[in-house]
Amino acid sequence: MKNAPLNPVMTALWLLHPVCALVALLTCIPILWPEQITTGQFSPEELRSGCIILGTIVASIIILAISCTYLFLKMHNLRALGNLTIWAATWGISAMIFSQMAIEADVPSPYEDVKAEPIQSTATLHQPTERLIGPASLVIAINPEEASADYIATADNLVKLESEHGELLASYLSKAPRWAHADTSDTFYTRPGHVVLVPPATGGIPGTVHATFRTVSEGEPIPAGFIPVSPGAPFPQSAADKEEIPDIALELSGKHYLLLAWRGTTHRETAHKAINAAITTIDSMFERLAANPTEENAQHMCEGRRKIRGNTPELRVNEPNNQYGVYQAEVHANPGRPGTFLLAIRAHNEQQTLLRLFSFPARYSSDPDELFRHDIPGTIEEWMSDVHLSAAADAFPKGAPIFAILCGESHQYFGVTFELQFSPSGAADSETQILLRRNYKVQAYERPAE
Do 379 and 450 form a contact (C-beta atoms < 8 A)? Predict the structure, then answer.
């Protein structure tokens, strides 16, 4: 009976849990809605509030421990479990109320912001083999698995355009980024700037198909070394060497020929399937134009897919197969406001020597989840400017969709850094942002002897 007066007190201790929780929530107000946020450190008011909140939580836990211990010893098990339930419910509800208060307050972190390294910043030297998606890409993947090895593939879309809309086809080919600037020499496959179609690698690349369009006026011979063939005809045999895979000129029943040169293994079935896959792939690219032969549609094909879904800027760099020291690149970014992009290519050394600098207007929108394609170099003169820093800038015809980084001896690999910067319109230099930085293993382009 001596401890009887303690019963009412121990039984009523649960009333202190809501009081502690209420004090903690009220004390959160100076933290969530301070008059001034102190960057980098806690203010004295915030420190005092934090100590009070911690004290109420600790006090509530101590009160719970005392009351439950007492009630269990007195065999009041249900009351002890009730106290425990009330404590858990009280602080659970308080936590939800605090969460809602924090959401409403939208308080920034009191710690100083740590600036992250530019996106994709890494010391790794990447191989420039990313696949580009724009209409200037000179590397096209093909799948010869289902192709025939006995007869030349048909090219219905190209033949239709040539026979019914020859002027439109000629107009498109004169403006299409991947076709317009191809070398006109008979040995185009030894020079940079032509399309290369690549089959899947199976234990090493067995070969590649090199392609370009050529206009041959009436009475003119076809390029030397090429055998004229018609779509659907049997594959020709090489006149000089039956073991050699002949270069073919696919007749389109007009002025245009599609020149195809296989370079790789002399295994005839492999080569024939790859050539047919190349014809089918190229012909399918013209299906849209053949179905709707208008200048507007041709222009859409020249522009290609202008944007992709995403919210992280991307850089893709490619060195077309067998075109050593020649590069193409695409930047996918959306700064959300007007401005200018700068793509600086620097030597990977202590001096960070500037080798090339591309400047171009930013494509943008208010949608943060779409990225706009920017071709490097651009093919539309008023859209793209290249600051010439060396003779490498004049290595190829103006407007060609390829660029060289450094003239010199080929096959001597070195590291370069691609850095993408964005400068908002009308902003000071201090507002220029570095969006990404990436390193590549490249080689010099050796200008052929005159």
Answer: no
Residue-level pLDDT at 38: 43
- Which structural domain range is residue 35 located in? 6-105
Give the number of other CB atoms < 10 A from CB of residue 143.
Answer: 13
Cα separation, 160 vs 358, in Å, equals 40
Give the predicted TM-score (pTM) of the model.
Answer: 0.70
Cβ–Cβ < 8 Å for 152, 229: yes
The β-bridge partners of 375 are 330
Q: Which of 301, 317, 344 is the last residue of a domain?
A: 301
State the alpha helices, DSSP H only, in 236-385.
268-285, 287-291, 295-303
Angle at CA of residue 377, ends 374 and 379, nearest 5°: 85
Decide if 142 contacts 278 (C-beta within 8 A).
Answer: yes
Number of domains the chain contains: 3
Domain match, 345 and 418 both: yes
Please give the Cα distance from 424 to 333 (Å, whole number): 14
Task: Return the pLDDT at 389.
Answer: 57
pLDDT tens digit sequence for 154-181: 999 999 999 999 999 999 999 999 999 8
DSSP at 407: B
CA 438 to CA 411: how far, in whole Å?
Answer: 21
Strands 307-309 and 256-264: unpaired
